[in-house]
Automatic annotation (TrEMBL):
<keyword id="KW-0813">Transport</keyword>
<dbReference type="GO" id="GO:0005524">
    <property type="term" value="F:ATP binding"/>
</dbReference>
<dbReference type="InterPro" id="IPR027417">
    <property type="entry name" value="P-loop_NTPase"/>
</dbReference>
<dbReference type="InterPro" id="IPR017871">
    <property type="entry name" value="ABC_transporter-like_CS"/>
</dbReference>
<comment type="similarity">
    <text>Belongs to the ABC transporter superfamily.</text>
</comment>
<dbReference type="InterPro" id="IPR003593">
    <property type="entry name" value="AAA+_ATPase"/>
</dbReference>
<protein>
    <submittedName>
        <fullName>ABC transporter ATP-binding protein</fullName>
    </submittedName>
</protein>
<dbReference type="InterPro" id="IPR003439">
    <property type="entry name" value="ABC_transporter-like_ATP-bd"/>
</dbReference>
<dbReference type="InterPro" id="IPR052156">
    <property type="entry name" value="BCAA_Transport_ATP-bd_LivF"/>
</dbReference>
<feature type="domain" description="ABC transporter">
    <location>
        <begin position="2"/>
        <end position="234"/>
    </location>
</feature>
<dbReference type="Pfam" id="PF00005">
    <property type="entry name" value="ABC_tran"/>
</dbReference>
<keyword id="KW-0067">ATP-binding</keyword>
<keyword id="KW-0029">Amino-acid transport</keyword>
<keyword id="KW-0547">Nucleotide-binding</keyword>
């Protein structure tokens, strides 16, 4: 469904991605793990058209996405839940969610999608009139996921959704991601919580210094000694 072939990305004179290739099949949960500064966020931004690629191609459902503006990428059904959530703090939960449904593909079904999101996150329905800034970190992450779902995506990409959350909320976020996977969404998950990620991912890529240096099923990587040493600490 998503095919990334040999992309490179530069920030001025600094090369951040070197000839990255990977693919995400329909309905799969594929993860990208790596340390701080490895290039994970840069990879996501280039997939959404937020930053240009210097070389290589990105195809989605057979269509060339490379060079497309962000709103066109979103209209194809690719959605990002950004790191740090990026909600509108003074707007209510429901207003933040509705922001997600501004494009044509999602606008017509927004009432129906909102209902579905409140079924997934009953807590957000309880707090629908509360401003985003007054929510806990975990609740804000739920709003960010809900807002992405309002775009009616085919592929949802997460940038470190568990970052900065209390352990119980980390579990909650992973539960939601697994539930969305079960419902058939295609998921590309960028995470530093390697332990949890290897448990839920169908397939996983490992990134270091802007390069893909390993790949395999969650189980394979969990059993790999160098991965255990570098990312799992045992
Ligand atoms: N706007 C920018 N200008 C210059 N360099 C950048 C910019 N954004 C990222 N970089 C550099 O590109 C490299 C990859 O950064 P990126 O944010 O993609 O890593 P990451 O794996 O997502 O890290 P983290 O887990 O810390 O978010 C880093 O060396 C970073 O300093």
């Amino acid at each position: 469904m998503l095919d990334v072939n040999g992309i490179s990305v530069n920030y001025g004179d600094i090369q951040a991605l070197w000839n990255i290739s990977f693919s995400v099949a329909k309905g799969q949960l594929v993860a990208l793990i790596g340390a701080n500064g490895a290039g994970k966020t840069t990879t996501l931004k280039s997939l959404c058209g937020l930053i240009p690629t210097a070389s290589g191609t990105i195809h989605y459902d057979g269509k060339l996405v490379t060079g497309m503006p962000v709103h066109k990428v979103v209209d194809l059904g690719i959605t990002l839940v950004p790191e740090g959530r990026q909600l509108f703090p003074k707007m209510t939960v429901e207003e933040n969610l509705l922001v997600g449904a501004y494009l044509k593909r999602a606008h017509g079904k927004r009432a129906q999608t909102l209902k579905r999101i409140y079924e997934i996150f009953p807590r957000l329905e309880e707090r629908r009139t509360q401003t985003a800034e007054t929510l806990s970190g975990g609740e804000q992450q739920m709003v960010a996921i809900g807002r992405a779902l309002m775009q009616d995506p085919q592929v949802i990409m997460f940038d470190e959704p568990s970052l900065g959350l209390a352990p119980i909320m980390v579990q909650e976020v992973f539960k939601v991601i697994q539930e969305l996977h079960k419902q058939g969404l295609t998921i590309f998950l960028v995470e530093q919580n390697v332990h949890q990620t290897l448990k839920v991912a169908d397939y996983c890529y490992v990134m270091e210094n802007g390069r893909i240096v390993g790949q395999g099923t969650g189980k394979d990587l969990e059993a790999d000694e160098s991965i255990r040493e570098a990312y799992l600490g045992f």
